[in-house]
Every structure is written in structure tokens, then in C-alpha cells.
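Lecture 7 notes: from sequence to structure.

We start with a single chain of 352 residues. Read the sequence below before looking at the structure.
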Amino acid sequence: MTPVGIKRDFTGEPEPLAAPELPDLGDEDAAEPALAEAEWRQSPVAVAQHGERLDRALALLVPEFSRSYLQQLIEAGAVQLGGREQRKTSTKVKVGDVLRIELRPTPQSQAFSPEPMALEVVHEDAHLMVINKPAGLVVHPAPGHWSGTLLNGLLAHHEGARMLPRAGIVHRLDKDTTGLMVVAKTRAVMDALVALIAAREVRREYIALAHKPWQLGPTVRVEQAIGRDPRQRVRMAVVDLAHQMGKPALTDFRVLDSQPQACLVHCKLHTGRTHQIRVHLLHLGHPLLADELYGGKPLAGLERQALHAWRLSLTHPVTGQALSWRAPLPPELRLALSSLGLNGGAELELNS
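Now the structure, written as C-alpha cells:
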């Protein structure tokens, strides 16, 4: 194995993204009280509120709603101060001004709602389910994707999901990454899965299609911390923890095949950082095909990042049974392999 930034005595199983890495669904991200239709409320600004920010003053007027929701209403033009529309949350209020707000549904306030959708369920029992996620499906509601997410589909799939944080989601895949995800169906199993992940007892393996011929050793271990890219905040990057914020990250890579234009790589995660495989492959000089964010270009008909969560293995938290599932490469990846003359099928079968 060729070490790249390695602690040589490190041994351990791949670690999917544990619950603390996911968005914290606290009060500001929780579903708001239901609004059947718009409702107006108004009140004069009291002496004690003089000089307060507009969003804070509103929080006293309608305490049953989160500040996050109220900030959305301000930005949407649903708030008036002294008879004038206000769209800045930081606006200062003055004693005697009449504060008026139209309480109405916003995309974020409706994000945690059930939406029936066709889910490819690989395994399901009373305790957990395994899903083969397609490209384009966002896992969790976020700005720009307040509906149509996996979370919405899970809320419609089974009644117990609404009683669980994140509808039972314990790890996630990027929007355009395909493949296997495990989801809890009870709180006890959700806690158990999080513990298994933290103990590195859940194994996830990925298949990646990357640019350029592989010229490193047959196996490479990358141990490089990952943090926010200071030059482009929407990206993550390898960072020096002595000088930048970030978290340790460890990935093992094994080349399956290589041709002049691209290489096929097996990836094992030991940590679960945002965009970890994408960032570490870029660090090695092999960005994923069609991964525009990290310098990958469309090739062989691919228009989305060439990354697939291929195998998932764990011990069932309730039955104790050792379980393993595989998700075949999606058709677009198989076509790309054929077009580029890459063949990893035999290797994948041998190690299944």
C-alpha cells in the first residue's frame, strides 16, 4: 500500500457519516405549527423592545414560531413596520411603531412533510431499511431543496418516520451519488446504528470513475484533513489543521482498472467527512468524471459525478445477523466503463 499522509499503525473498518455530521435538526429546522391559511397578527412595539432587531421583536409577538421561520417571512415581504414593508431581519424597531406580520406557509416550514415517492428498497424489516438511492435525489431538505427529498419520501413510506430525528437517516450521500443507504425505523435502532457507525462497525464501499490513468501503487491510503475551501466556500479541500479549521479524514483506494483517459477505483471510508472521496481523489490528481465542483469534466456520456455506494455491510442491531448488500452499477456508469474500455466487473465479483 502506498501511504499518502499516513499513520502507519492505523487499522480500522470504514466509517460512514455518523449522526453528528448531519444537520442538527433543532428548533430552527423542525416543522413549524401547521398553517391552513395566512393569518395576520399585529402589535405596537413596547418600550422594552425599542431598538431590538426586527426578527427578535417578532419572536415575542409570535413565540410559537422559530426565528428561522420568522426570518423567512421577513425576507419574503410578509412583515410591515409602521405601515411599511420590511425585508431586513436586522432592522431596528422603535417604540410605538405598529408591527404587523402575515403568518403563511414557507417552503422551509413545509419541508418536513410526507411526499409519496418510488423508493428502491433493497431490504426492509420492522427495524431498518436499506435503500438504493438514485442520482438527483437530495437526502435531506436544505436551501434550494425544501421538498422532494429522501426524508420526505421516508415520512410517506412508514408512519414511524415522523417520530424519528431526520426520519431515521443516519448517514447521507451527495445528491448525484448513487447507491446504498441504511435508514432506521425505530429510535432504538437509530441510536444503535449511530453507535455502530461511531465504532466503525458499519462498512461502506464505493466505486469511483476518475480522470487520467492511475500511476500510483495498486493501493493508496490518504490521511489528509478536510475543511472548507478558503478560496471557494461551496467546496471542501485538504487543509492543514495547524492553520485552518477542519477534521481528520482517512480513505483507502484500490485501483480496479486504468486506461489512458480514466481509471476505475474502489474506495473505503474510515471517516465520513463532507465530499471526502471527491476531495481525496482530487488531492491524488484524479477528480471524479463529471464532478464539476472539483474540476471533473463530462466524459463518456456522464453528466453527473461518477461515484456509487456499491456495498453496505453491518450486524443487525436487533437480530445480531451479519448482513451485506450490493447495488449494481447504474446503467450510465456501466455505459461509461464500456466506452472508456474499463473493466472492473471481474474484480468486483471476486471480492463480493
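The helical segments are 54-61, 67-75, 150-157, 187-198, 276-283, 331-340, 345-350. Keep this in mind for problem set 3.
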